[in-house]
Design a protein that fits this description.
419 residues; mainly beta; Porin; 4 helices; 7% helix; 56% strand; elongated
Length: 419
């Protein structure tokens, strides 16, 4: 299994990770943008809408709704989050300045393919980035001992199958091969007088299940579940400054990305209007604490198994609520609308500048245009109104205290084709 997974990662890595920076635009460090068509609806109805091949990711069972033959979708999402800190009472030794804007432009591609074989079976593959984060602050800022750079990238290959049991019920299942790369840096403290940088990666495996129920021709109900994935990240801890040769070592850390489950409804109200809604649970409580341990001794005498750093999460499970509608302007054009409330897993005690997350409210709209019978072009935009996030984090050299003002914008384009 590991050999198969690494081969798939090699094939997919250049396309999915090359030159890509990932920024969380959902609760925690999840990337909520997994289809261009879904952006305009704030991803309402994801497990039931089945507009295009992106449903391979949201609910494999819903592949049975797609046109017979081959369906392919490719999307690019342009993300612009903003995280701006205002100091209130940070310790002077922590540094000076507010750190600039911790967010930056990021580009997230994803692709999906499905095909039919026989009247009841479907096969599909999703290539996407389910989790990601990048925040980066000025090196000497007030929060430098908590965070300078935080960069997490994932690439996921998810083949799946679906079976149409009858005209009203379908089931589906898949497996995921997911690679994660992480880089974290922070100021080590006045004694070491330099920065600690952690680089580590791993490949993990998970599964997903789905079902689709169609009680009437105009209504679909989709349910899906995606398992957690456990990683043992391995890499290096390097230090800048005069003690760099004595402090560096190899390291490892256990990390578990959360399980999730969705319930979605899609209803064709009349020839012009389509309505949809979604409730998604994410098990962020699996992230309690990230402990980075040495796997080699250092020249300064730190032993194998000693702790390099420990990052507290203490996150809670969350729910995301979304609703959307489509209006068919004519046979070629569809207008999309959507709203969502995306709760944060963080809390005021453990929140860190690495991810100054808070509750998000999405407002979204989009346009779908059919340039041909087989082709569909989708454009979507969403703005995230994010609550101010308070920070009060104590480190070895002091405390960073203040508030982050946050927001995010998402621009998506997707082309889908059936043949």
């Amino acid at each position: 299994m590991a050999t198969i997974g690494r081969k798939l990662m090699t094939l997919a890595g250049a396309a999915a990770l090359g030159g890509m920076a990932s920024n969380a635009v959902a609760g925690g460090f999840a990337i909520g943008t997994q289809s261009g068509s879904g952006t305009g609806n704030a991803f309402a109805g994801g497990a039931a809408a089945a507009d295009d091949a992106s449903v391979v990711w949201y609910n494999p069972a819903a592949m049975t709704v797609l046109p017979t033959g081959n369906n392919i979708s490719g999307a690019l999402h342009v993300l612009k989050p903003s995280f701006k800190f205002t100091n209130t009472n940070s310790t002077a030794a922590m540094g000076t300045g507010e750190g600039g804007d911790g967010g930056d432009w990021a580009y997230v591609p994803n692709g999906f393919y499905s095909t039919s074989f026989g009247p009841q079976w479907r096969f599909g593959v999703a290539l996407n980035a389910p989790f990601g984060l990048k925040t980066e602050y000025d090196p000497g800022w007030r929060g430098r001992a908590s965070a300078i750079l935080s960069d997490i990238k994932t690439v996921n290959v998810n083949p799946s199958v679906a079976y149409k049991v009858n005209d009203t019920f379908s089931i589906g299942a898949g497996v995921s091969f997911q690679k994660i790369d992480a880089e974290l840096s922070a100021f080590t403290g006045l004694a070491a007088a330099g920065n600690l940088t952690l680089n580590a990666d791993d490949i993990g495996y998970g599964f997903n299940l789905g079902a689709l129920f169609q009680p009437a021709p105009s209504t679909r109900i989709g349910v899906s579940y995606r398992s957690s994935i456990e990683y043992t990240l391995e890499g290096t801890a390097s230090f800048s400054g005069p003690l760099s040769a004595l402090l560096g070592s190899n390291v490892k850390a256990d990390l578990e990305v959360p399980a999730s489950a969705s319930l979605s409804v899609f209803h064709n109200l009349n020839p012009q209007w389509e309505l949809m809604a979604d409730l998604t649970w994410t098990g962020w409580s699996s992230l309690d604490r990230l402990v980075v341990l040495r796997t080699t001794a250092t020249g300064a005498g730190s032993a194998v198994g000693s702790t390099v750093t420990s990052l507290a999460f203490n996150w809670d499970d969350t729910f995301r609520y979304s609703a959307g509608a489509n209006y068919k302007l004519n046979s070629q054009t569809k207008i999309r609308f959507g709203v969502a409330l995306d709760k944060t897993p963080t809390n005021d005690v453990d929140r860190t500048p690495r991810l100054p997350d808070q509750d998000r409210t999405w407002l979204a709209f989009g346009v779908q245009w059919r340039p041909s019978k087989a082709g569909i072009l989708d454009f979507g935009y969403a703005h995230e109104f994010i609550k101010d996030a308070s920070i009060n984090q104590t480190t070895a050299i002091g405390t960073v205290v203040g508030t982050f003002k946050n927001k995010a914008d998402i621009f998506s384009v997707q082309y889908s084709h059936s043949f």
